[in-house]
Amino acid sequence: MPGDSTTSSTPGTRVAVRFLLPEPDPRTGARLTDVTGTLVENGPDRVVVDSARGRVVVPRERVVASRVIPPRPVRRGAPHRSLSLEDLERVMNGAWPPVEREMLGQWVLRAGHGFTARANSALAIGFPDAPLGQALLEVARWYEQRSLGPLLTVPVPEVGALPEDPVVQAALAAGWRTGEPVLVQSAAAREVLQVPAPDVRVEVGARMSDEWYAALAAYRAAPRAAAQAVLHGSPDQRFALVRDAEGAVVAIGRLGVSDGWGGLGAMWVAPGHRRRGLGRALVRTMATEAAGLGCVSLHLQVEVANSAARTLYAEVGFTTHHAYAYLAPGVVPGPVSRAC
């Protein structure tokens, strides 16, 4: 129904739901009420929310409006540092969304027609509804049914915690192998906006243009239909590009907006145009777009081995929030394991 944004939300998301009461409130005469809390069930017939006053079951036909709201802070400090790694991973899931998702307990099985590892891996946060060994078999079966290679995303507080993580240990024991670790970094949008950027013209659009897509496909595998589905799947998104003097696209980036956060991804600068400030200009422009869309905080993912990108992001105000690694059965994930 119009205004009901829970239809595409996954369990674990914080939501606010307005719904019609069966009878007017005897004290106030109100016909509508609200519930805010964690989405537990999101089915065709009902919405179930765990609120501060207990579990609330709302028949789907009584939902008048709903919206996704940012998760509660669990750490002290700036908003971009205050979320748990589990909650930030859920936020990131909306900024770079899969086309298909299914829950395995609290794990999120994600598929996006093979476009990027992030949209085609099982997000192992919380607990599956089976012992770890059985859960890994379920993950493998789910992806094989979709003609995709099984892939697992395991978030940890820091890179050094990967060997001690029980999911990683179970996967290694079952013959899975780890790929290169990835850092999840965050920043306050207002701080990024204060960093000087070169005077570069950055074009921004709400849709992926043919030129933007051509630049993407030039540096990574990106089937058009799959890329279109994933990159236009966020609640809102922006596509940024920079041209050279001849009009050729030489740098691109994407902003995905979800849960009040802006996610930066698909960052690329043509080799012959690097070290000229184009990446900094893209980041600054996307931070401006994010702030204009109401985002207070930003996130991105960067491979540990990508020292040039890590230097850029540190210079504009990003710090590491947590880390993750991809795991696959029997082989180490290669370049396809880029975060986004």
What does the model show?
- The protein is an alpha+beta fold.
- It has three domains: 5-68, SH3 type barrels; 79-180 and 325-336, no CATH class; 186-322, Aminopeptidase, CATH 3.40.630.30.
- The protein contains eight helices and 17 strands.
- It has helices at 85-95, 132-144, 166-173, 189-193, 210-219, 224-231, 278-292, 307-315; strands spanning 14-20, 32-42, 46-51, 54-59, 63-68, 100-104, 107-111, 122-123, 152-156, 176-178, 182-188, 203-205, 236-243, 249-258, 261-269, 297-303, 319-329.
- Strands 8, 9, 10, 11, 12, 13, 14, 15, 16 and 17 form a ten-stranded mixed sheet that branches. A five-stranded antiparallel sheet has the order 4-3-2-1-5, with no helix packed on it.
How do the strands and helices of this protein lay out in sequence?
Blueprint: E1 14-20, E2 32-42, E3 46-51, E4 54-59, E5 63-68, H1 85-95, E6 100-104, E7 107-111, E8 122-123, H2 132-144, E9 152-156, H3 166-173, E10 176-178, E11 182-188, H4 189-193, E12 203-205, H5 210-219, H6 224-231, E13 236-243, E14 249-258, E15 261-269, H7 278-292, E16 297-303, H8 307-315, E17 319-329
Parallel strand pairs: 8-9, 15-16
Antiparallel strand pairs: 1-2, 1-5, 2-3, 3-4, 6-7, 9-17, 10-17, 11-16, 11-17, 12-13, 13-14, 14-15
